[in-house]
Amino acid sequence: MSMKTFLLPDLGEGLTEAELVKWLVAVGDTVVIDQPIAEVETAKSMVEVPSPYAGTVHELHGTVGEMVLVDTPLFSVLEEGSAAPAAEPQPAAPEREVAQSYREEERAGTQEPASEGSGNVLIGYGTPEGLSAKARKRRPRQSAGTPLAPAARGEAVAPRRAPLVISPLVRKLARELGINIAEVTGSGAGGLVLRSDIEAAAAVRSAPAAPASAPVAPATTPAPAQPAGDIDSRSGLPIASRTPITGVRKTIASAMTRSRSEIPEATVWVDVDVSNLLALRSDMKAKDPKNTPGLLAFIARFVVAGLQKYPELNSRIEQSAEGPAEIVGFEGINLGIAAQTDRGLMVPSIRNAQNLSARGLNAELARLTEVTRAGKASVAELTSGTFTLNNYGVFGVDGSAAIINYPEVAILGVGRIIDKPWVVEGELAVRKLTELTLAFDHRACDGGTAAGFLRFVADAMENPAAVLADL
């Protein structure tokens, strides 16, 4: 017998978990090496997990929608020529190691063991052995006259186990509702405590107790039970849905929160007459419709040229515990392009954009947009940007005070292009205008640098032929 169990690996950037999106095989299917087994969504991208083994799928560990921790079983394969393993008795609570990111969380109902241990937290069995003696809570002394506990009298005591809870969201919900997880019977596989179990326990606790000698009421149709959590206690409104913040949305929320809390940002903006740029592109498209770059590619080329002239905006600030903060500059430019997808806002980056022409940028823009919306962009493509360009004009808005894509120091937004009255050589005319908005980290540069960069890009968009001749 040769059973191989594949553990979910670290899929990049130190990620500790992934959401199981789709199983691509079923138990009993024959698989070959490198055949995709499942699709999982990390905080960065959608990933197909291939099988390193050939044989028959024996077990799929996890259900669709479940968060799977790194280094826990994902699937098991019975290699070719092997017999199915004999059934073994299953433990009451299966042991699985929690990823490092959850090790600091408290375990409800955990009994401290007397011997030293590994310090790893096993789901269902809290093991705080790795804590120092100072970090452990002392047990209260037995006062005189207090009956001895069964263990103190030498009687056998059944070992106490912590509740089987995988999701930190479930533990958080229990704390918020004041529910002791140790007293909740899990309805999931192997006694796993689910969100519904916590909500049911809260509903039972909040139900009013019946009077001891209540009068018998006429038989009526009972009103449907309203489980706890259906009515929001703050607003008094019914709760329509609860959506856990996981995967990409969790990463976006974390980055935006960190940006707002750590970066002292300032914003400058300018209206730009892009009539000449649109006319130039229209002439090029008439002569060569297949090889004419899109408008965003032209703007990207001007942005890259501006960053080469004002490199302070193509940098990152690093804070070291040993010394002062540093502004880290780069030799090249990885231009991030904000893209709205079904999975949230993603920012893939064009690596070494300074080496590409407007046509080259246009081709790379098309490729990155396609792979990102398909969930196939690599971690490197989604995390290596040094400056972000955001075209929110496609949503029909003029401007936006964009949040800087941490840990970058600036982001440039482009609004919609509309007809507006504009003064040209002393005469009022109707022109094509857009608004550029630059949010920048005031630690990396001052307003003069930010304004100089913004003016350079605006001038390039207003007089594109003169600038493109030198690029």
Concise synopsis of the structure shown:
The chain is of the alpha+beta class and 471 residues long. Helix content is 23%, strand content 21%.
How would you describe the overall organization of this protein?
This protein has 471 residues and is of the alpha+beta class. Mean pLDDT is 77; it is low at 87-152, 155-162 and 209-228. The protein folds into 3 domains: 3-79, RNA polymerase II/Efflux pump adaptor protein, barrel-sandwich hybrid domain (OB fold (Dihydrolipoamide Acetyltransferase, E2P), Beta Barrel); 164-204, E3-binding domain (Dihydrolipoamide Transferase), CATH 4.10.320.10; 248-468, Chloramphenicol acetyltransferase-like domain (Chloramphenicol Acetyltransferase, 2-Layer Sandwich). 29% of the residues are buried. The chain has helices spanning 168-177, 195-206, 247-262, 275-287, 295-309, 358-373, 379-383, 447-462, 464-468, and strands at 3-7, 17-23, 30-31, 36-41, 46-50, 55-60, 67-69, 73-79, 265-273, 315-318, 326-329, 335-337, 339-341, 344-346, 349-350, 387-391, 410-414, 418-424, 427-441.
